[in-house]
Design goal:
Layout (H helix, E strand, L loop, with lengths): L3 E2 L13 E2 L5 H33 L8 H4 L41 H7 L15 H6 L4 E6 L18 E5 L5 E3 L2 H6 L7 E5 L6 H16 L9 E6 L8 H28 L4 E6 L1 H13 L19 E6 L21 E8 L4 H4 L1 H5 L7 H4 L15 E5 L1 H4 L5 H6 L4 H11 L5
Parallel strand pairs: 3-7, 6-7, 6-8, 8-9, 9-10, 10-11
Antiparallel strand pairs: 1-2, 3-4, 4-5
Helix pairs in contact: 6-14, 7-8
Length: 432
């Protein structure tokens, strides 16, 4: 077809040729031109869509680290719940290194070595894997959480089974959800390269509150942790829920601490024989369980009962006590828990001379002269196993805690309980 190349008014040809024939009527030529233009424009749109989709695929950004791995509100990486799917999924930080095959770059595909690999069987080809996110690598070495429940066990020291107590042990996630576990998992996961801290709550705590309180204390500690050393955090849940009127209830719980001290001594012995670095933190009657457990570990008697195993001394366990409801004379050379210092490396103690509950400790003890260690502060302590004085860092928190017997106030006010207890994480791994 012959003719001249023209462009009508307002036409945008974009290099698309439209020929006009002077022998055809003008209306027919315009209609044909409109149809031709529409066809070319459609083809152009299709080409652009294909080009843009191809370019987008080639420029796709690598997947980013999921927000839930890096946006933890407590300034540390959460432990993924997938680590707790089964007891065998426990991951020790010493085994957390992951080696990946290097990715094959595009420049290497034309080399002779690449050609040789192409002729091998598919089963012998190592597929390239993307680099593991650094946050996930950190999570593989993150903190682990345990619950040791003794609420179902007898508190009668004459009836206790100390051959192998039937502890109910669970793994916990960071939200406090319990996952199945057991004593074998707990003992088998011990790692001499990471500290295991046992937290023991005070009186009038039911099972859910014990877990939430234990995780609260954990969060206060890790905010001040001196380094990125991963730890095992153990919540010791003992039968301390409110049962009766205050005074009779407190006296009953004071008696239960003897059995709890023996149970704790049994577990601490397993820690020691497996070279597990350990620390203990106790509040109120929890401090009484701590000192009783260390005393029984060294061969001491609680409620006319021992754990029935050869004594262990020099365990070098670091101890943190907050407002301990323990007689101020019990850790002396002639005290009821006199052997406890034989297994203590160092102690951090926060007390309050205005504590209204500990002020009347004498009614709990049945001795008009008895004073609580958490009320008067450290007095006379027996020496350590090597005869050296027990290193103690003590602070009276009366100005910030007031007359309250409140564990949270020690952490939330300027008594700096979180910072003080966090020092245990570092010192557990060394002996003073």
């Amino acid at each position: 077809m012959s003719g001249t190349l023209t462009a009508g008014k307002g036409d945008v040809c974009h290099d698309v040729l439209v020929w006009l024939d002077p022998r055809e009527p003008i209306a027919a030529q315009k209609a044909r031109r409109s149809i031709t233009w529409t066809q070319h424009l459609s083809m152009f749109a299709v080409c652009m869509i294909v080009t843009l989709s191809t370019g987008t695929a080639s420029r796709a950004e690598p997947s980013q680290t999921p927000d839930e791995w890096t946006s933890a509100t407590e300034q540390f990486l959460p432990t993924p719940t997938s680590l707790f799917d089964s007891p065998i999924s426990t991951i020790s930080h010493s085994d957390a290194s992951v080696e990946l095959q290097p990715a094959i770059s595009g420049n290497e595909t034309n080399t002779p070595a690449s050609s040789a690999n192409a002729s091998t069987s598919p089963s012998s080809i190592s597929l390239a894997m993307p680099a593991i996110p650094s946050s996930l690598s950190t999570d593989l070495r993150s903190d682990r959480f345990w619950l040791v429940n003794t609420r179902h066990l007898t508190c009668n020291t004459c009836r206790m089974n100390l051959n192998q107590p039937n502890f109910r042990i669970h793994r916990l996630d960071r939200c406090g959800r319990r996952l199945p576990s057991g004593l074998d998992d707990y003992l088998g996961s011990m790692d001499p390269t990471r500290p295991r801290i046992i937290y023991i709550h005070g009186n009038r705590r039911d099972a859910p509150t014990a877990i939430s309180q234990g995780l609260f204390v954990y969060r206060q500690l890790v905010r001040h942790r001196p380094n990125d050393q991963p730890i095992d955090w153990v919540i010791w849940s003992w039968p301390s829920e409110a049962d009766s009127l205050f005074l009779s209830d407190v006296r009953e719980k004071a008696q239960r601490t003897n059995a709890q001290g023996l149970y704790l001594a049994w577990l601490l012995r397993e820690h020691v024989v497996r070279s597990q670095p350990s620390g203990l933190i106790g509040f109120s009657f929890g401090g009484r369980v701590v000192s009783g457990g260390l005393h029984a570990l060294a061969g001491g008697t609680l409620g006319r009962r021992t754990i029935g195993e050869p004594p262990i001394t020099g365990a070098n366990i670091d101890v943190g006590l907050l407002a301990p409801a323990v007689d101020s004379t019990w850790l002396s050379s002639n005290g009821y828990h006199r052997l406890a210092t034989q297994n203590i490396n160092r102690m951090v103690m926060l007390y309050n001379h205005r504590d209204i509950a500990l002020k009347y400790f004498k009614f709990v003890a049945g001795n008009s002269k008895a004073k609580a260690l958490g009320y008067v502060g450290p007095r006379c302590f027996a020496p350590r196993y090597d005869g050296t004085p027990l290193p103690i860092r003590a602070r009276d928190c009366a100005q910030t805690v007031g007359n309250h017997h409140s564990e949270k106030r020690y952490y939330e006010r300027t008594c700096y309980a979180g910072r003080e207890m966090a020092t245990l994480i570092d010192s557990v791994m060394r002996v003073d």
